[in-house]
Specification:
Order of helices and strands: HEHHEEH
Largest sheet: 3 strands, antiparallel
Oligomer: single chain
Length: 100
């Protein structure tokens, strides 16, 4: 599983918990993967929308300008399940080799 797949898995996981605005997603992922460029995370977000795994909409800002929110689609839920299974398989294989 490549880093892009892991980032997609993490983004989709966060969206399973509810709609989130872009900057919030960026901050959460940047905390977990500090060496990842913001542009890479936003590119993955755009790709998830393009592939219909998520969709974006404009929501109310908290005292400021409107924010761009993302939500998971039914296709995104399926993609999340597939990536999660891929991750679990990889983790099990690494664990068998003693890598943890």
């Amino acid at each position: 599983m490549l880093k892009k797949d892991l980032l997609e898995l993490c983004l989709l996981h966060l969206l399973t918990q509810g709609d989130r605005y872009g900057y919030e997603l960026l901050q959460r992922l940047h905390d977990a993967f500090p060496d990842t460029q913001e542009s890479a995370i936003y590119a993955i977000l755009r790709g998830l929308c393009w592939d219909k795994f998520s969709e974006k909409y404009m929501g109310e800002g908290s005292g400021g300008p409107a924010r761009k929110y993302y939500r998971l689609t039914p296709f995104g839920q399926e993609k999340y399940k597939a990536l999660l299974e891929k991750w679990r398989t990889l983790y099990a294989a690494l664990s068998e080799l003693g890598i943890q």
